[in-house]
Amino acid sequence: MFFLLAIVLVIAGMVSMGSAAQNVANTNQKGSLLIWPKIVVESVQNESSGFVDTIIFIGNDYTQDVWVKCYWVDQNQTIEDFMFRLTPNQPVSFSASGSGLGGMTVPPFVTDGTAAGELKCWAVNAAGDQQISFNHLYGSAWIRPEVTGFATGYGVMYGAYAFAAKPAFGSTVGTGGTLLLDGTTHYDACPQYLVTNFMAASKLLGPDLAISPCKEDLRQDRTPTCTKAKFDVWNENEVKFTGAYQCIKCWFEGELDELGTLDERWGTFTGFGGDKFTFGALRTDVARFRVQGVASSVCKGKFMDGKTDLCPNGATPSPLLGVLLFNIYFDPSPIISIPVLGIAPTGAGLDGSGFIQWDTAGSTPEAPKQ
Question: Residue 47 — pLDDT band, cuts 50, 70, 90?
Fold first, then answer.
């Protein structure tokens, strides 16, 4: 049963894959900017004895060396940056947990054992104050769970989104500290929306989506990005389901059938319509969804402690990147979930409004983290 279901999932994933439009980032090319939408480290998974780590792989497919600037960004938009050199034709790997898996040591994504978020890396000059064109970087990530007696040796791997730089090789790209994802003169753009096929959620299977907005401020005095992920869903009979959404501040990850349940991070409801991803509503095993970051006032006034808004000014439009995992549920009491497949949804269209802002090496030093 397990292997049959895994095969079905692989087929479903292959059906959803496709080529992105020209000048749009995708997971099947090299670039000067790489983005991994889901990085996770968990010391305990679903109250079982276990551990989850993410191993990142980056390669330099060229005969010259290059410096790479990276930022970990967690779900609270806490950042940690680091920089390293890639020699000619060198592949490197490192772990998000700092466990030593992988051949290179970098500041860990988390120090207290549990975190979820994303990773962004791009080519820079040796001084670390200017992004450069070096379209020979590529990467992937391995989400590696180890749950005692169940998941050791399992895991999923997905490819990083790669953005090609438009200027000539080795030249600077725009102004240091600002990456413009415009699709024309700076870097490839983000897709206008994401679309993919998926298996309907059931007692045995859960589709889990991580979403990263393409507008992000990583500076010390940063302004969080708030957007609303609007979903449209179709079943195999072409019946359309609308109304599902998720309010996002900086980054989001969750099982799609749980949209609209209590958000533990904010202590309230920040989404709606998770039932539209279940077999009970769809009545077919396979369906598809389209998701786009849109403006909305519905995300305003979501309170964490009665005083703090999730999105004080509401949601603004932002293109999105994402990774869809499929979790298989086991019931050893308590129930545990193990990811068995990871895919990047297909991007469609071109949205040139994306950007990344960061503090260069010549910027004012950051204040101590709170």
Answer: very low
Collapsed DSSP state (helix, strand, coil) of residue 14: helix
Helix (H) or strand (E) holding 159: strand 156-159
CA distance 98 to 80: 13
Question: Under DSSP, is residue 215 helix (H, G, I), strand (E, B) or coil?
Answer: strand
Question: What is the per-residue pLDDT across 97-112, written as a single tens digit (0 to 9) for each?
Answer: 887 676 788 999 987 7
| 3-class DSSP state of 211 | strand
Start-end of CATH 2.60.290.11 domains in the chain: 25-189
Q: Which one, of 299, 283, 346, lies nearest residue 25 by Cα? A: 346
**3-class state of residue 143 by DSSP:** strand
pLDDT of 247? 92
The CATH superfamily of 25-189 is: TM1070-like (2.60.290.11)
Q: Which residues lie below 8 Å from residue 21, measured CB to CB, with a gap of 6+?
A: 191, 347, 348, 349, 350
Instruction: Give whole-number Cα distances, 152 to 99, 202, 327, in Å.
Output: 16, 24, 15
- The residue type found at 234 is W
| Other Cβ atoms within 10 Å of 59 Cβ, number | 17
Tell me: the pLDDT tens digits for 351-368? 999 999 999 976 544 443
The 10 Å CB-count burial string (b at 16+, else e) for 343-355 is bbbbbbbbbbbbb
**Residue pLDDT, tens place only, 285-299:** 999 999 999 999 888
Number of Cβ within 10 Å of residue 92's Cβ equals 19
The closest of 83, 84, 93, 97 to 54, measured between CA atoms, is 97
Strands 156-159 and 226-235, by their bridges, are unpaired
Degrees, nearest 5: CA angle 118-78-356? 60
Residue of 195, 196, 198, 346 lying closest to 279 (CA atoms): 198
User: Tokens 């894959």 identify what position?
Assistant: 17
- Tokens for 54, please give them: 């993410």
Phi, psi of 7 (to 5 degrees): -65, -45
- Banded pLDDT at 370 (limits 50, 70, 90): very low
